[in-house]
Each structure stands twice: as C-alpha cells, then as structure tokens.
Amino acid sequence: MSNTMSDTYTTTATAPAVTPSPKKPGPLVHTDRFDTPIEVDKPLLRTIGLHKSYRKGQHIIPVLRGVDFVANEGRITSIIGQSGSGKSTLLHLMGTLDVPDQGEIYFEDQRTDNLPIRQRDRLRNGQFGLIFQFYHLLPELTTLENVLTPAMISHGFFKYWGVRKQLKERAKHLLDMVGLGHRLNHKPRELSGGEMQRTAIARALVSDPKVLLADEPTGNLDRQTGEEVLGLLRKLNEEQGLTIVMVTHDQSIADQADSIVRLAEGCVETV
Ligand code: ADP
Ligand code: MG
Description:
Layout: E1 8-10, E2 28-30, E3 38-39, E4 43-56, E5 59-72, E6 76-80, H1 87-94, E7 102-107, E8 110-111, H2 117-127, E9 128-131, H3 143-155, H4 157-177, H5 193-205, E10 211-215, H6 223-240, E11 243-248, H7 251-254, E12 259-264, E13 267-270
Parallel strand pairs: 1-2, 6-11, 6-12, 9-10, 10-11
Antiparallel strand pairs: 2-3, 4-5, 4-7, 7-8, 12-13
Helix pairs in contact: 3-4, 3-5, 4-5, 5-6
The structure holds adenosine-5'-diphosphate (ADP) and magnesium ion.
C-alpha cells in the first residue's frame, strides 16, 4: 500500500490548482512561492462536464447532465443524493465500468473515458478497488479465495501460480487487518453482513489500488455495523493515505467524509 502522505510532487506547467487543506496533511508540493514544500490537495480523480443517459424502450432518461467532480488524493469524498439521482452511474463511469455520452474523466493526469477496453480493464484492475452495497462475493468460494479472486484475474493463471504464495500472504494480512483473520475458510453464507463487507474491502485492496470506489458500502447494514465498516474505511484512509470515493444516501455517513458532493437534477452542488 503506498503511503501518499510522504510522497513528494513537483509542480509543472500543467499542475492542478493547489488549495491548502484545512483538515489532514496532504501530499507535499514544491511551489515557486515557498522555499519549503507545502501540503495541498491534489486531484486524483476528476470529471468534466459528464453526461450520461439511459434508453428505456422509446424513452431516453438523462441521468447526468454535465457533472464536474473532483476527488483529492488521500481524502474521503462522499457523493450524496436521492435514490435515482445518478450516484452509482457516476461512480461506475469513474471506475471505467461504463463510458459517458459526453465529457471527460481523468485519473491522475490520464484521460480514462476514451481508452481502449483493454487499457481500461488494466487501469481498473490495478488502480481502483471497488466495493458495493451487496458485497458481490462469490458464494462457493471461501473468504480467502474471494479476496484472491481479483489478483488471479489480473495476473492470469501462469503468472498467478508463480506468485501465489506471496499473494496468499497478502490476502491473509488484509483479512487480518479488517478483523477477519479467524474467518479465512468461511463461505459468505457463514458470515454476517458486516463481515461480508469487510471481506469485500479486503478483496478491493488486494491489488494495492490508489483509490477505493465504494457504492453505498453501509447501505445494507444496521447502523452500528455500518459505523464499524465506516470506521475501517477511515482507518485505511488515515493510516495508509488511501483515497476513498464513497456513495451514500445517508447524510450522517456522508458527513464523516472530508468533502461532500451532492448530486441533484443530474448536476453537482458542492456542500
Ligand atoms: P442512484 O445510484 O443515485 O440511486 P443510479 O445511478 O443507479 O442512481 O440510477 C440513476 C437513474 O438511471 C435511475 O433512474 C435508474 O433507473 C436509471 N438507470 C441506471 N442504470 C440504468 C440502466 N442500465 N438502464 C436503464 N436505466 C438505468
Ligand atoms: Mg445506486
């Protein structure tokens, strides 16, 4: 896991605008104005003028109508909005699971929405960890096997075979970290909702992603279990500098992020 807190960046002509953060320390940036590097917000994931519509029979349903969004490195950004406001759509577009009708998406300084499919897959497998409201664990696999699945897919069978021991150790370490070191051989049906989501978080981290994209990660959990899962996400953010973009319809969950973006009428209102 990279620790972004200690990374050092040098500004270039195309560097994003820098905004000192009032909250947590951000990446260090060298500027012309100061002798020593300063802590700033650095955009990691960004969308510009994003449009997306779905077709349902004869009807076209506009969902996103020009969404400008920024998630800064090392921060938790929450996306809040009513059911049907396009939160999942936006998250899926940023996670390269779908393409917009119009607009641009950037990860770091790379435009991602127009990449060929293979490059999008590689980017997603290598840089993005995805978690969902209903966990999406494979029911026939154990906790440990579920966590290893993305690594198997991204390495391919032969390469995976060569590094399976290290990956298994990493998966065990991650399961330990999310408090499931004692549940390695359990199947999803033998786990509680909170344990399934913690397994999904460990699975999302196995490829050492730069950003975690979480779609209603507490949406199917009772309040206390939801708070525990959120506490785990905050711990990952604070201790490892993991950037998190989290979709929720729950204001009290959204309030715990570093910044909140509200989706309404297909556009964003920064809160
Ligand atoms: P949210 O996550 O905020 O609840 P979604 O992004 O899932 O909202 O959906 C936004 C709107 O787009 C909803 O009206 C939904 O019915 C519609 N929608 C989402 N995905 C599809 C799809 N694949 N085909 C048709 N309509 C869709
Ligand atoms: Mg949704």
